[in-house]
C-alpha cells in the first residue's frame, strides 16, 4: 500500500492548497488522454487520484495520520497482520465490527479475537485457538478503483444517463441519482480490480461542470434574463432557455431590472422525487446613444416624481 503523501510528493504538514496544487500538476502530466501509449502512466494516474481522494477528505486524512486506516483507505490490520484488499464493504452480513485485515477479506473481528485469545471454546473446536478465526476467512476481493466523472450542468439537472468507460475497456450507462451534486460518490459493484474472492468495486465521484449562463442555488436554477426596454415597459411574451428546452415566459408591463419570475419544476431533482424551480431575474437592457430615447426621457413630465432610492434612506 502506498503512502499518499509520498505519492503526491508533499510533506505530512502540507496544507489543503499545497495538496490540491500537487494533485493538479500530477494529474495533468499523467492523464490517460495524454499518455495513451503509456500504461504505466494510467496506473500512476489512478494512484495519484486515490491519494488525493484520501488526503482531501479531512476525516480520512486524520484517520490515516493516526494509523487507523492505510493508504488505500482500508482499516489498519490489528496486531501487525497484513492488510490490503478492496476496502470496506458496508452492509455485510451481520453488520457490527468488521475489518479488511488478515489478507484483505471480510473477517469477523469477534471470531478473530476469539481465536487469538481462546475464548468461547472454539465453536465446537476443543480449546479454540487460531484455527477457529482463520478457518472461516473469506477469500479477499480485488481492490476498489476510483474514477472522477465530469457531468454537464444540464445533464445533472435532468438526470441524463452518462456513458462511462471503465479501466477494463468496458462501457456502461450510469444512471445519476436524484439530488446529485459535485462530490456525490456512486459505487458500482464488481467493476473494480479482480481478486480471488471476486472483483472489487468502482467508486465514481461526480463533478458537475459550471454552465455559461445557468447557476445552481440549492435545488433551484438561476438565470439572469436580458430584456429590451420595450419589453419591460409594454410587457409581452419572451422565449427563455431552461435546462431542458426553451419555454415562453410572460413579462408584465412596467417590469424593472431585478424582478424575479419563477418557472415551476425546471430545477434539479430532489431526493424526494420533486424538482426545484428556475428563478429568472429580469435585466433591462437600455440602448446606448439613442437620441430619440434621450429626448423622450428629458421631456418626460414625470421624471422627477418620487425617489426610487427612498427605501435606502438616501
Topology of helices and strands:
Elements: H1 4-8, H2 16-30, H3 39-55, H4 58-65, E1 98-99, E2 107-108, H5 109-117, H6 130-134, E3 145-151, H7 153-158, E4 162-165, E5 171-174, E6 185-188, E7 202-208, E8 214-217, E9 220-228, H8 229-234, E10 236-240, E11 247-251, E12 260-263, E13 278-285, H9 291-299
Parallel strand pairs: 3-7, 9-13
Antiparallel strand pairs: 1-2, 4-5, 6-7, 8-9, 10-11, 12-13
Helix pairs in contact: 2-3
Return the CATH topology of the largest domain. Answer: Helix Hairpins
- Helix amount, in percent? 25-40%
- Our Rg estimate from Cα atoms comes to 29 Å
Give a short account of the largest sheet.
4 strands, mixed
Helix-strand makeup class: alpha+beta
* Alpha carbon gap, first and last residue: 66 Å
From the structure provided, what is the oligomeric state, counting identical versus distinct chains? single chain
Which shape, going by the Cα principal axes? Answer: elongated
Q: What's the CATH first level of the largest domain?
A: Mainly Alpha
Overall strand count: 13
Second CATH tier, the architecture of the largest domain: Orthogonal Bundle
Condensed summary:
This protein is α+β, with helices and mostly antiparallel strands.
Walk me through the structure.
This protein has three domains: 4-134, Helix Hairpins (Orthogonal Bundle), CATH 1.10.287.110; 145-208, HSP40/DNAj peptide-binding domain, CATH 2.60.260; 214-298, Urease metallochaperone UreE, N-terminal domain (HSP40/DNAj peptide-binding domain, Sandwich). Helices cover 25% and strands 21% of the residues. It has helices at residues 4-8, 16-30, 39-55, 58-65, 109-117, 130-134, 153-158, 229-234, 291-299, and strands spanning 98-99, 107-108, 145-151, 162-165, 171-174, 185-188, 202-208, 214-217, 220-228, 236-240, 247-251, 260-263, 278-285. The chain has a four-stranded mixed sheet. The chain has a three-stranded mixed sheet with strand order 3-7-6. Strands 1-2 form a two-stranded antiparallel sheet. The longest helix has 17 residues, at 39-55. It is elongated, with a radius of gyration of 29 Å.
Amino acid at each position: 500500500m502506498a503512502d499518499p503523501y509520498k505519492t503526491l510528493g508533499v510533506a505530512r504538514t502540507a496544507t489543503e492548497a499545497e495538496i490540491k496544487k500537487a494533485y493538479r500538476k500530477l494529474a495533468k502530466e499523467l492523464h490517460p488522454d495524454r499518455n495513451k501509449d503509456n500504461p504505466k502512466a494510467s496506473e500512476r494516474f489512478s494512484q495519484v487520484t486515490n491519494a488525493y481522494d484520501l488526503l482531501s477528505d479531512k476525516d480520512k486524512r486524520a484517520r490515516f495520520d493516526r494509523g487507523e486506516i492505510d493508504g488505500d483507505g482500508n482499516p489498519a490490520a490489528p496486531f501487525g497482520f497484513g492488510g490490503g484488499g478492496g476496502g470496506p464493504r458496508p452492509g455485510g452480513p451481520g453488520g457490527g465490527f468488521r475489518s479488511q485485515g488478515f489478507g484483505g477479506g471480510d473477517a469477523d473481528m469477534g471470531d478473530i479475537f476469539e481465536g487469538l485469545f481462546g475464548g468461547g471454546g472454539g465453536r465446537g473446536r476443543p480449546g479454540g485457538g487460531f484455527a477457529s478465526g482463520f478457518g472461516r476467512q473469506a477469500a479477499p476481493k480485488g481492490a476498489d478503483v476510483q474514477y472522477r466523472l465530469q457531468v454537464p450542468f444540464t445533464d445533472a439537472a435532468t438526470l441524463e444517463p452518462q456513458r462511462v468507460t471503465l479501466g477494463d475497456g468496458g462501457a456502461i450507462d450510469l444512471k445519476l441519482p436524484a439530488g446529485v451534486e459535485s462530490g456525490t460518490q456512486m459505487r458500482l459493484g464488481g467493476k473494480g480490480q479482480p481478486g480471488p474472492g471476486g472483483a472489487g468495486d468502482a467508486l465514481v465521484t461526480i463533478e458537475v461542470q459550471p454552465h455559461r449562463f445557468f447557476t445552481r442555488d440549492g435545488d433551484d436554477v438561476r438565470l439572469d434574463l436580458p430584456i429590451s426596454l420595450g419589453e419591460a415597459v409594454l410587457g409581452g411574451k419572451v422565449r427563455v432557455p431552461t435546462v431542458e428546452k426553451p419555454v415562453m415566459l410572460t413579462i408584465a408591463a412596467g417590469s424593472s431590472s431585478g424582478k424575479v419570475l419563477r418557472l415551476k419544476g425546471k430545477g434539479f431533482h430532489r431526493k424526494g422525487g420533486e424538482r426545484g424551480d428556475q428563478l429568472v431575474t429580469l435585466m433591462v437592457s437600455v440602448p446606448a446613444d439613442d437620441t430619440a430615447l434621450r429626448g423622450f426621457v428629458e421631456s418626460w413630465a414625470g421624471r422627477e416624481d418620487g425617489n426610487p432610492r427612498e427605501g435606502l434612506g438616501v
